[in-house]
Amino acid sequence: AAFADMQLYVNTKMRTPTEIVDEVNRNAENLASASEQVSATAQALAQAASEQAAGVEETSSSLEQMTASSAQNT
Questions:
Q1: C-alpha 47: how far from its chain's center?
Q2: How far apart are CA 22 and CA 27, in angstroms?
Q3: Which UniProt keywords are listed (predicted)?
Q4: Measured distance CA(72)–CA(67) in Å, rounded
Q5: Cα–Cα distance for residue pair 29/19, rounded to 1 Å
Q6: Euclidean distance between the first and final Cα of the chain, in Å?
Q7: Taking the CA atoms of the chain, what radius of gyration do you get in angstroms?
Q8: What's the pLDDT at 10?
């Protein structure tokens, strides 16, 4: 009886090579999807950083102009 129980357990728990390959394929697809999301997020962050840098540069230029104008008026 113990052997039969063990045999039943092994037979029900063992996965076929096809099932293993299917799971590997699903995991690969999930990884590819996650990689695409990370890439899109990185691109969005790079764009936002570029826009922020442009804004800082514009603000700096405006401050320089105000400083120069203020110096001329004194």
A1: 15
A2: 9
A3: Chemotaxis
A4: 9
A5: 15
A6: 103
A7: 31
A8: 86
What is the residue type of 39? Answer: S
Residue with tokens 């590997």: 24
Two tokens, residue 71 = 């110096």
The tokens of 21 are what?
Answer: 């390959």
How far is residue 14's CA from residue 33's CA, in Å, rounded to a whole number? 29
Residue bearing tokens 């090579």: 17
Distance CA 30, CA 22 (A): 12
Kindly state the tokens that stand for 64.
Answer: 């320089």
**If 0-12 CB within 10 Å is exposed, 13-18 middle and 19+ buried, where does residue 50 land?**
exposed
4's tokens: 């039969």
Residue 3: per-residue pLDDT: 92
DSSP letter for each residue of 15-50: PPHHHHHHHHHHHHHHHHHHHHHHHHHHHHHHHHHH
